[in-house]
Amino acid sequence: MRTYIGRQQAVSAEDFAELALGTPVELWLGVEGESDEERAARLDAARDILAEHPEMPDDLIRIAAQVIKDNPDLFDVVSLVRPTRRRTARKGVAA
């Protein structure tokens, strides 16, 4: 089964996000190992886009809210928090 958004085929979650945002996800989130210069250029481009499209933050909030509503299991904060390790007494060692 193929899924299209407009004329574009979406084959991955990244494709859906990019088509929903109208920009690559990496523009907003960055990429691992980017240099300070690359980060500055990326953020500058993002600021330019937001200046040209002031409604974009509202649209993004609506998209994020819909994703959370449709996929609450992805945002189970309790399962994301690591339980703290309790130290237990070992044989011959006081707790």
Can you summarize this structure?
This protein is mainly alpha-helical and 95 residues long. It has five helices and two strands; from the N terminus they run ββααααα.
Describe the structure.
The protein is mainly α. It is 53% helix and 6% strand. The chain has 5 helices and 2 strands. Strands 1-2 form a two-stranded antiparallel sheet. Strand 1 (3-5) and strand 2 (8-10) form a beta hairpin. The longest helix is centred in the middle third of the chain and has 17 residues, at 36-52. The model has no long low-confidence stretch (mean pLDDT 77).
Q: Which helices and strands occur, and which strands form pairs?
A:
Blueprint: E1 3-5, E2 8-10, H1 13-21, H2 25-29, H3 36-52, H4 56-70, H5 77-80
Structural class category: mainly alpha
Indicate the percent of residues in helices.
40-55%
Largest sheet, if any? 2 strands, antiparallel
Strand order of the largest sheet: 1-2
Total helices: the number is 5
Order of helices and strands: EEHHHHH
Large-scale geometry: globular
Overall number of strands: 2
Query: In percent, how much strand structure appears in the residues?
Result: 5-15%
Average pLDDT rating? 77
What's the N-to-C terminus distance? 59 Å
Radius of gyration computed on alpha carbons: 21 Å
- Provide the low-confidence segments as ranges: none
